[in-house]
Design goal:
Layout (H helix, E strand, L loop, with lengths): L5 H17 L3 H4 L8 H16 L1 H11 L6 H4 L2 H13 L5 H13 L8 H20 L3 H4 L3 H11 L1 H10 L7 E4 L9 E5 L2 E4 L16 E3 L6 H4 L8 E5 L5 H8 L3 E6 L2 H14 L4 E4 L9 E7 L14 H4 L2 H19 L2 E11 L8 H10 L3 E3 L20 E2 L13 E7 L1
Parallel strand pairs: 5-6, 5-8, 6-7, 8-9
Antiparallel strand pairs: 1-3, 1-4, 2-3, 9-12, 10-12, 11-12
Helix pairs in contact: 1-3, 3-6, 4-6, 4-8, 6-7, 6-8, 7-8, 10-11
Length: 422
């Protein structure tokens, strides 16, 4: 074959093998796109992302045509080449000759995979002929969800809801934005609630109207909810712990709050500064571990680190690089930050705790444990008005719980609780 599309496929292969063999996050692997032409970078990203999104089903199709599993120490990246080829054929609908030739070329350039070229060629030709029929007979939602997640979601939410969550993860997430100023709009979007809108235009975010002059920023609809639970913050001090990527800081600053944004990662803190400059908003940025930060304020927002299983639509690698043990580790670290944040709340003040996780240990159970040992705090149950009329987002305890299949077009899975210091 010619080199047409080969740089993109090489990058996609490097990304996929990094995720599956080294358990590196997809976002960290996107450095492989550096130096590619925009069209190649877009194709590489789509190919790697879609392979991960449909990984379980693609693997099941390939196993129909493989006599036995491949040993990575012998086969190198052969499995990843097959997965990419199957994705091109069955998901991206690339012509069979192009997809198969590309896979053979990738194998020829790998010291181990080169010995499996005949196998790659034979298997992908079978996928081209018979793969659609095999794919149509699979439970794709179940296959897209590793056992550790399917079991948890079925237990916590019920089998029907677990399937709806898995179905939502089969679709790419739309892009939501938050407008800076009340009363403004955006012509290339539709309204969701409050100042949150969903883009209808395609293309580079930076090229869309209103971005360069700071009229809005990108933020998932669910991620925009926790900051609003603080209520009227105009002229008041708000401490935003674990502030990156910065959407909540921008929301609070736009609402007139005096924001102290605390972020441990200096590079991510710099991104917040850049967005503040673009949107012409002000906030104090502090690079520090939230557990070591000392100050007091009437409002504290804790957007705690977590396994982020509520964001799988945007991060299809997560099910394959994390496991149940990560939930325990993340929950322990988040609880330390919750306690640190609680210590910053002035008497009579409000604490909002949020995580972009679907796991109860990281959300509901954190707050239950906290309230059991902190009598100086009480839950402030949410009302329909707090969630813009979406009562389905309110749990029986009065907390926020959004799920990926809710809202037309979906939203991230978030949990948030609002507490008052007595």
């Amino acid at each position: 074959m010619t080199d047409t599309g080969l740089p993109a496929r090489r990058a996609a292969l490097a990304i996929l093998s990094g995720v599956l063999q080294k358990r590196r996050p997809l976002d960290a692997q996107l450095e492989q796109l550096a130096g590619l032409q925009p069209r190649d970078a877009g194709f590489a990203r789509a190919l790697a992302s879609q392979t991960l999104r449909h990984l379980g089903a693609l693997d099941a199709v390939l196993r129909k045509f493989l006599a036995k599993p491949l040993a990575p120490h012998k086969a190198g990246v052969t499995s990843e080449i097959l997965l990419l080829g199957a994705c091109e054929l069955l998901i991206l609908k690339v012509p069979a000759h192009a997809a198969v030739d590309a896979a053979n070329t990738l194998a020829a350039k790998d010291a181990k995979a080169v010995h499996f070229k005949p196998l790659i060629n034979a298997v992908l030709r079978k996928v081209a002929r018979e793969g659609e029929a095999v794919l149509s007979g699979l439970d794709r939602e179940r296959l897209a969800t590793p056992d550790w997640l399917w079991t948890r979601w079925s237990m916590h939410y019920g089998a029907a809801t677990a399937r709806l969550i898995a179905r939502a993860h089969q679709q790419e997430a739309p892009t939501d934005i938050v407008l800076k100023a009340p009363g403004t709009t955006h012509p290339q979007s539709t309204a969701l609630f409050s100042m949150v809108r969903r883009l209808t235009a395609e293309g580079r975010i930076e090229d869309l109207s209103g971005f360069a002059n700071g009229g809005w920023w990108v933020q998932d609809a669910a991620a925009a909810l926790p900051a609003t639970l603080l209520g009227d913050v105009a002229g008041r001090t708000v401490i935003d712990l674990c502030a990156a990527p910065g959407g909540k800081t921008l929301q609070l600053a736009a609402a007139g709050a005096k924001v102290i944004a605390v972020e441990i990662d200096a590079a991510r803190a710099e991104r917040i500064r850049e967005n503040l400059a673009r949107t012409k908003l002000d906030a104090e940025i502090v690079v520090a571990d939230a557990r070591d930060f000392h100050a007091t304020a009437p409002f504290v927002l804790v957007d705690a680190p977590c396994t982020a299983t509520g964001t799988i639509r945007r991060h299809p690698d997560l099910p394959w690089i994390k496991g149940a043990a990560d939930v325990t580790v993340s929950a322990a670290a988040a609880y330390e930050i919750l306690e640190a944040g609680a210590a910053l709340v002035e008497p009579g003040g409000i604490l909002v705790f949020a995580v972009c996780s679907l796991e109860r240990e990281e959300g509901e159970e954190q707050i239950a444990g906290f309230l059991a040992t902190h009598p100086e705090f009480a839950r402030m149950p949410l009302t329909a008005e707090d969630v813009f009329g979406h009562e389905e987002w309110i749990t029986p305890d009065g907390d926020l719980r959004t799920l990926p299949f809710q809202l037309d077009g979906g939203m991230d899975g978030f949990y948030a609780a609002r507490l008052k210091r007595l």
